[in-house]
Design goal:
The chain is 22% helix and 25% strand. It is α/β, with parallel strands linked by helices. The chain has one domain: 3-Layer(aba) Sandwich (Rossmann fold), CATH 3.40.50. The strands form two sheets. It has a nine-stranded mixed sheet, sandwiched between helices. Helix 1 links the parallel strand 1 and strand 2. The longest helix is centred in the C-terminal third of the chain and has 12 residues. The chain starts with a strand and ends with a helix.
């Protein structure tokens, strides 16, 4: 069985091709999903990739959450389908209520584009199981609204339940508690701001550390 990973394209999406390529490099079949089509095409997992969906009008991810495909994603997440949101995809998942908190303008209001080190805080999710807990991975970050914010109660809940998946080693954007990525309570939905799909080959990326995220999803699908 070859797992099928769906990659959504919204108007303004930039990184769907890269996400699909990363899925293929991990051994999955990449399936294109269109924002205006509610059919998830029987995929085994879904990636909501980065970019500027609908031009980030209103605020990042605010319009994309209403797309027909996202209604299906929300329903599928309730059934345990693995969902990954990267950068703008993370913003969309928060706007859709699949993950708590929000992504706000970076501290200093500057767009940040550089490679960052992340620590793996939780390796018990559908998208992080291939990493050792406490491992360091190097991936690119490119965002203007990447500062994770939430109430103290939500932050304490995330910490207490082990749902902070990735944490910045050196905080580049003012994210609360250095949070770079979080998961749902069941560990099947994960959102992170940096871009693992741009770190899949040592020749072209800062590392191939991002591949572990996609291998993890294959494990989750094949052992379900």
């Amino acid at each position: 069985m070859t797992p099928r990973i769906g990659v959504i394209t919204f108007p303004g999406t930039l990184d769907d091709v890269d996400a699909a390529r990363a899925a293929r490099l991990s051994g999955a079949e990449a399936v294109s999903l269109w924002h205006d089509d509610a059919d998830l095409k029987s995929v085994d997992a879904v990636i909501v990739p980065g970019g500027f969906s609908y031009g980030d009008y209103l605020r990042a991810g605010a319009i994309a959450r209403f797309a027909p495909v996202m209604r299906s994603v929300v329903d599928a997440a309730a059934q345990g389908l693995p969902i990954l949101g990267i950068c703008n995809g993370f913003q969309v998942l928060c706007e859709a209520g699949l993950l708590p908190g929000a992504l706000a303008r970076n501290a200093g209001l500057h767009f940040v584009c550089r490679d960052v080190w992340l620590g793996v805080d939780a390796n018990n999710t559908a998208w992080s199981s291939r990493y050792e807990q406490g491992a360091d991975i190097l991936v690119p970050l490119k965002s203007g609204e990447g500062r994770y914010v939430a109430s103290d109660a939500v932050l304490d809940e995330l910490e207490g339940e082990g749902r902070v998946v990735f944490r910045y080693r050196e905080n580049p954007n003012g994210s609360m508690r250095d949070i770079a990525g979080i998961s749902s309570a069941n560990g099947r939905v994960v959102g992170l701001m940096p871009h693992p799909e741009h770190a899949t080959e040592a020749l072209t990326g800062p590392s191939d550390d991002g591949l572990g995220i996609f291998y993890s999803a294959l494990d989750a699908v094949l052992t379900a």
